[in-house]
Amino acid sequence: MVSQNNKINKDPKKSVQDRLLDAAEELFCEHGFEGTSIRDIAASADCNIAAVNYYFGGKEKLYIEVWRRHLIPIRDLRIASINKVMAQNKGQPQLEELLRSFADTFVDPLVDANRTSRLGKLMAREYIDGHLSANMFVDEVITPTMTAMRKALVKTNPDLDESKVPLVVFSVVGQLLHLVHVKAMLEQVGDDSHLPIFDSTEVINHIIKFSLAGIRAYTKGE
Prior knowledge:
The chain contains nine helices and no strands. With about 220 residues, the protein is mainly α. About 70% of the residues lie in helices and about 0% in strands.
């Protein structure tokens, strides 16, 4: 059970929904989905148990909403960065600018999450428990982001074979994800790893140059 001292009462002006989301997020981070009960969430949010079902339709949907309030802003930030680049230079965007903007907005929120935020803890719990449906990530984040990036790549490289565009996007995303995971791992190990200092800015610059060369080679049919 959640003690009275752990109630989410920091802002009395918050709605019941927000208090439930705050409480659920904190408890899911600490105990995971299976280790958190509706009773615990309601007690921490200073609500009755029925409020969870009334506002969210149960613990499962509440868990999804906890994730959505982190993932949707990240998705929107990535798409906004793509659209911003596409609107620059009088509608003649540069490929390097597109890759750099996408890389920065892709990596920064995830690196910050791995360091301090609740999203990092949620991710760690999800890696262990594996409760969230993969469709949620695909439908809510991956598909919209990939679609925006594919359209941008076609516009910046009209001679690029469109059949190669999905591979290009997956390649860029794969490199960026690897950067995030390795950085998080090395930060957990600390100075005991005896490995070179991991400079994410330098790695991002490498990913951009490497991807630029690959995309240009594809464009030339190489």
